[in-house]
Design brief:
The protein has about 280 residues and is mainly alpha-helical. The two termini are about 50 Å apart. Among the domains are: about 40-95; about 100-175, Winged helix-like DNA-binding domain superfamily/Winged helix DNA-binding domain (Arc Repressor Mutant, subunit A, Orthogonal Bundle); about 225-260. It is built from ten helices and three strands, in the order ααααααβααββαα. It has helices at about 20-35, 40-60, 70-75, 80-85, 90-95, 100-110, 135-140, 150-155, 185-205, 230-255, and strands spanning about 125, 160-165, 170-175. It has a three-stranded antiparallel β-sheet with strand order 1-3-2, covered by helices on one side. Strand 2 (about 160-165) and strand 3 form a beta hairpin.
Length: about 280
Amino acid sequence: MANSPLKTQKSPSISGSPVSDALRLVLRRIVRLLVGSVSFPALLEILKKIYVEEAERKLAREGTRPTKSALALLTGLDTRVVSNVLNSDLDSSLDPTSFSAESALLDMWANDTFFKEDDGKPAILPLEGRGRTFQGLVLKAVGRNVTVKTVIDKLIASENIHLIKGATESVEMVSQYYSPLSSDRAKMTDIALYESSRVLSAVIHNMTTESDLRVPQQGRWTYRLSPNNYVEFRKEARRLLEKQIKEGEALLESFEEEKKGPGQLTVGFGWYQWGGHDSDEESEE
């Protein structure tokens, strides 16, 4: 009897699956908050460090020794990259100026002797030309892929520079510290990221614990709201949530210890209303 031909089976993949769809949705929200304030290279360094750290924790939970080889297999990174990540301290190795091209440019202007006056202050630079000019600074700090006008517009909007009109237009530094976000938006970004991490923390806890120890983590929604009723729905939802928030605060206060001490836990819950804000929300199948 002839041998039966070997049957092949497709490997499972997240590509095009609900997991990849949900992952894109979550990452899109995070990127929407960060784009313009954190550069992709800086975000990549942070993600790389966290990915290796979480891989170490996963192996430790499973009772497996977290060797460089095991970490490389789990993360998909080269062992040399894993080694560099393990030996690095992200807080000290990640240059704050790498968070944005604007920060890098201002840092170079303030610290590179070529672009400073004899008294150590950032020089007032001619706008155009080669060498010790603002155009030369952009080329050296940012590169040729970004135009001088783009940089000028961003730094004027953030009130970091001042244009000096004259026969030769010049640029003066007003502030070395670049902040792409208003204080209000920065605060809202922090809140959004912290709240997102708390929701995910609840989900991860529920995935890894026994059913009777799981915490509430649910949502309710409809795909059938008329746009004409959206404003009224938001008003009613706000009233409901504000009432529950007061009840929640009272519950926390009833359990809260009078003084902070060792061994105490951080606990909480949250409320939010979502939907109708973006065009890329998940939709009914």
